[in-house]
Each structure stands twice: as C-alpha cells, then as structure tokens.
C-alpha cells in the first residue's frame, strides 16, 4: 500500500499543479479579454476599410471606362476634323458658313396658340413714352437717331 501511495503521490502533485495553472488570475483574464477585444476591433476596422476601398475601386473603374470612351470619341472627332468633309461640317454647324451660290434659310417656328389665347381678349399696354419729354417732343424724338447707343 505504501507503494501505491508513493505512486499516487506524483499523480496528486501533477493534478495540484494542473489545478493551479488551470485557474488564471483575474488580471491575466482581463488582459486576455482586452487583447481579444482589441484584435476583434482591428479586424472589424480592416474589413470596413476593405469594403470602402472596393467601392472606391469600382467608382474609379467606371470613371476610367467613361474617360476611355470620351477619349475615343475625341480621337474620332479630331480625325474627322482633319478631312475636308469634317472641316466643312464644322464651318457650317458652328460658324454658320455657307458655300458660294447657296442661299441661307433660317426657319423660325411660331409657338402654337393655346386655348386661353383664343378665348380671352388680348389686352395690350400703351407704349411707354420717353421719360422727361413733353408729348410734342416725344412724338418728334422717334425721327432722330441717338448719338450713342
């Protein structure tokens, strides 16, 4: 029996040591918990930043595609402007030039009268006379050209 106790003695000592190491102290538990929370916060922030960077990447990619399309359109416009037909088109559209023996015609579209204009009589205010002139002088003023605009 003594032999059994001698054999069990190291087992009991190991169990006591294990019990001492298995119960961590309160400061070490709090330190471990703080470390876990800190690392969790870092992972969350990194994930949030990654999502934001992916969104910015998509936005920049769409802007790049739009810029490339605009670049192609401008290249085509430059190539067109180097030809005679392109120069003629620009002169006609932007500068209003016409070729010899052509008669320029400008179409003016009148607005369609509304129903209110058909039913209501048109009242017009009398023409305003120049301020400060007597009526006789105002009647003569329309025959004279002013010296300054």
Query: DSSP strand (E) fraction?
Result: under 5%
| Largest beta-sheet characterization | none
Rg of Cα set = 47 Å
Instruction: Please state the average pLDDT score.
Output: 78
**Terminal Cα span:** 132 Å
Give me the count of strands: 0
Order of helices and strands: HHHHH
Shape: elongated
Based on secondary structure, the structural category is mainly alpha
Low-pLDDT stretches: none
Helix content range of the residues, please?
55-70%
Short recap of the structure:
The chain is built from five helices and no strands. It has helices spanning 2-22, 26-81, 84-94, 115-119, 135-141. Helix 2 crosses helix 3 (84-94).
Characterization of this structure:
- Helix 2 crosses helix 3.
- This protein has 149 residues and is mainly alpha-helical.
- The mean pLDDT is 78.
Salient structural properties:
149 residues; 5 helices; mainly alpha
Helices and strands, with pairings:
Layout lengths: L1 H21 L3 H56 L2 H11 L20 H5 L15 H7 L8
Helix pairs in contact: 2-3
């Amino acid at each position: 029996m003594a032999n059994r106790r001698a054999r069990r003695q190291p087992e009991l000592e190991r169990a006591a040591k294990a019990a001492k190491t298995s119960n961590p102290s309160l400061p070490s538990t709090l330190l471990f918990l703080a470390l876990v929370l800190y690392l969790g916060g870092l992972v969350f922030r990194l994930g949030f930043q990654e999502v934001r960077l992916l969104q910015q990447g998509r936005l920049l990619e769409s802007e790049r595609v739009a810029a490339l399309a605009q670049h192609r359109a401008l290249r085509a416009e430059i190539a067109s402007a180097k030809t005679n037909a392109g120069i003629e088109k620009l002169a006609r559209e932007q500068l209003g030039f016409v070729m010899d023996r052509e008669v320029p015609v400008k179409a003016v579209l009148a607005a369609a009268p509304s129903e209110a204009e058909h039913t209501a009589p048109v009242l017009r205010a009398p023409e305003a006379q120049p301020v400060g002139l007597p009526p006789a002088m105002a009647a003569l003023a329309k025959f004279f050209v002013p010296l300054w605009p």
